[in-house]
Amino acid sequence: MAAKRKKSRGENLVLRYLILCGWALFCVVPVLWFLSIGLRPRTEIITPTPIYFPTFSLDAWHMIWEDWPMGKYLRNSVAAIFGSVIIDLILAIPAAYSLSRFQYRGREDIGFYILSTRMMAPAIVAVPIFFLFRNLGLLDTIWALMLIYAAINLSFVTWIIRSYMLDIPKELEDAAKTDGAGELRILWEIIIPAILPGIITASVIAMIFAINEFLFTLLIASTPNAYTMSVALANFTGGSDGIIYNAIALVAFLAFLPVFVVVVAIQKHLSRGLTMGAVKG
Amino acid sequence: MARIELSNIQKKWGAFWGVRDVNIDIADEEFIVFLGPSGCGKTTTMRMIAGLENPSEGEIRMDGEVMNDIDARDRDVAMVFQGYALYPNMSIYENIRFPLRMRGVPKAEQDAAVRRAAELVELTDYLDRKPGALSGGQRQRAALARAIVRQPQVFLMDEPLSNLDAKLRQAMRVQIKHIQRELKITTVYVTHDQIEAMTLADRIVIMQSGAIQQIGTPDEIYNDPANTFVASFIGAPPMNLIEGRLSGGTFEAPGIRVEGLPGAHDGQVTLGVRPEDCRVTAEGAHLGGDVYGVEPTGDVTYLTLKVGESLVEVKADRAYRAALGQGESVRFDPDRIYLFETGSGQRLR
C-alpha cells in the first residue's frame, strides 16, 4: 500500500515536471527565437527552406548602433521610465498613506476612483492628451513621456503600496507616536522602510508597463528626439529597406533583457506584492 | 513621576459606548492595573491616557494639567504594546534609541541611556540584532527597554505578556514589577489575566462593558468584591455563586442550608463562597452533594460537587480522593460568605 502510494507520487512528480518543462519551453522559445533571428544575416531570415544551422552574424547589432541612434532611444527610454517611476512614488506613497491610515469621508470612494482610472481604454483619451501636450508645448519631449507613463501607472502603484501599508500593524504607528514621532517622521522612518518590498514591486511593474507603452509614445514622439525603444521598433518596418526583421528582433530582445533580469532578481517580492494586492483589494 | 486624574471620561463610537463614566485618580508612582474581559474598555481607557484616542467627554489631567488636546507625542508617556510593536527595519539598539532621537536627547547621552536600559532588561548581547531574530520574550524585553529608556512620566502597558508562554510570563511579571519599583514611574497596566492583576497592582480597576465595577487593592478586591462580576472574575477557580432564598438569616437552596446570615435581605439572593473557603467535612456541614469530578494538581485537589442543578467547586486537601457519584458534605467558612442581590448582582451587606 505504502509502496504503491510512493510510486504514484513519483509518477505525479514526473508528470509535474513534464508540464512545467512544457510551460517553460512555451515561454522561452519565442525569446530564443528572437535572439536567433537577431543574430542572423538578413538573407537567412526569410527563406522558403528551413535552415538548421544558421550563420552567426552581428549585422543587426552593428546596424542598430551605427545606422540608427539606438543609444539615444535607449537613453530616452531609461530617462522617461525612471522619471515616471519617481513621479509615481512621490505621488503614490503619500496618497497610499492617506488611503490606508486616515479616516475621512469618501476615503473608499477616492481609493476606488484612483483605481478606476485604469479601467478606461487608453485610446479614448489619446486625442485629448495629444492636444493637452501640444498646448503645453511638451510634444516630442521626454518630459511628456514621463508624465504620461506616470499617469498611466499611478493608479496601481498607489493601490499596491496601499495594500502593503494596510498590512503594517497599527500598533507600530501608535508606538512611534508615543515615542514622539510626527506623521512625516513615521512615514519616512517606519512605514517606508517596512514596505520597501512593496515599493520595489510597484516600481518594477510600473517599469514593465512603461517600457511596453507604445500608443502614447507614438503620439507624443514625432521625431527621434523623444523616440523610445518601443517606438524605435516600429521604425524598422517602413522605409526603403523594407522590414528589417533581425534589427527588430535584436532591439526587442534588448528591451526585454533588463526587465527580465530585474524581475528574476526580485521574483520573491513580486509574487508577494501581486497576490497581496489581489487578496486585499 | 506623575499623578493622573480621569474625570467623567466617556468614549462613544456612534451609538456604541466604549467607555462610560470613568473616574480614577492615579497616584504618583502607583502601579495600577485595568482588569476585565476583552471589549470592556480597558485598552480604550489606556489609549486615551496615551493620547492615541480622544475621549468624547471628560477630562484627563496629568499633574493637574489638562491633557485632552495634547498630542500623543507631546505627552511624556511611554507605551508597551501587546504585539511589541518593535520597528522591524531597525536593530534593537536603534529601536531603543528611537524615542531619544525623536525627543532630541543629545547624542552623547543617547548611547549611555540605551545601554542602561538594555542592561536593565538583560538584552545587552542582542543590541545588534533585528527584532525578527529575537524570541518572543526577548522582543518583549526590547519593547520594555524602549519604554524605559527615556524615563517617562508614565508607563502604559497593554497586555504586554499575553503573547508569552506561562513560564516566561511569570518571569517577566516579576521583572516588570521590579523595574517599576526601581524607577518609581506611575504605571498603568492593562490585562485580562487576574493573576497578573493581583500580583502586579497597587490597585486594581475592574471594568466591564465600558464601566468601572470596582477599584481597590488586590486584597480589597479579593476579600470585599462589590458585585458578582468582580467576585467571579477574581480568584481561580472562581467564586461559587448559588441562587437561593434567604429568610430570617437562613439561606436555602437545593442541597444547601446556611444559617446565621444577616437577616435584612429576605427574599431571592445569590450566595457566594470561594472554593478555598470550603472544607470537606461532615461536621456542621452547609452543603451536601455528589462528587462530579476530582482534579488533583499536586498542591491542591479540586473537587466538583453536583448540588441540586448546580456545580460547586471546592479546593480540597492535596491528598483528597473520591469516587464519582460518592456523597460528600462541605462546610463554608462562615466569615467568608457573601450575599449578592439576584439580578443586579450587587453585594448585600
From TrEMBL, chain A:
Localization annotation: Cell membrane
Domain of life assignment: Bacteria
Membrane topology: Multi-pass membrane protein
Domain ABC transmembrane type-1: 74-266
Primary localization class, coarse: membrane
Record has Membrane as a keyword: yes
InterPro entries found in the cross-reference section: BP-dep_ABC_trans_perm, MetI-like, MetI-like_sf
Pfam families referenced in this protein's UniProt entry, alphabetically: BPD_transp_1
Residues annotated as transmembrane: 14-35, 78-99, 111-131, 143-165, 186-211, 243-266
Gene Ontology BP annotations: transmembrane transport
Protein name: Maltose/maltodextrin transport system permease protein MalG
Lineage, uppermost ranks: Bacteria, Pseudomonadati, Pseudomonadota, Alphaproteobacteria, Rhodobacterales
UniProtKB/TrEMBL annotation, chain B:
GO annotations of cellular component type: ATP-binding cassette (ABC) transporter complex, substrate-binding subunit-containing
Domain ABC transporter: 4-234
GO BP of this protein: carbohydrate transport
Record bears the keyword Cell membrane: no
Coiled coil: none
Pfam families: ABC_tran, OB_MalK
Domain of life: Bacteria
Record GO terms (molecular function): ABC-type transporter activity; ATP binding; ATP hydrolysis activity
SMART domains attached to this UniProt entry: AAA
Keywords of the record: ATP-binding, Nucleotide-binding, Sugar transport, Transport
UniProt entry tagged with the keyword Ion transport: no
Assigned protein family: Belongs to the ABC transporter superfamily.
Name of this chain's protein: Multiple sugar transport system ATP-binding protein
Organism in which the protein naturally occurs: Albidovulum denitrificans
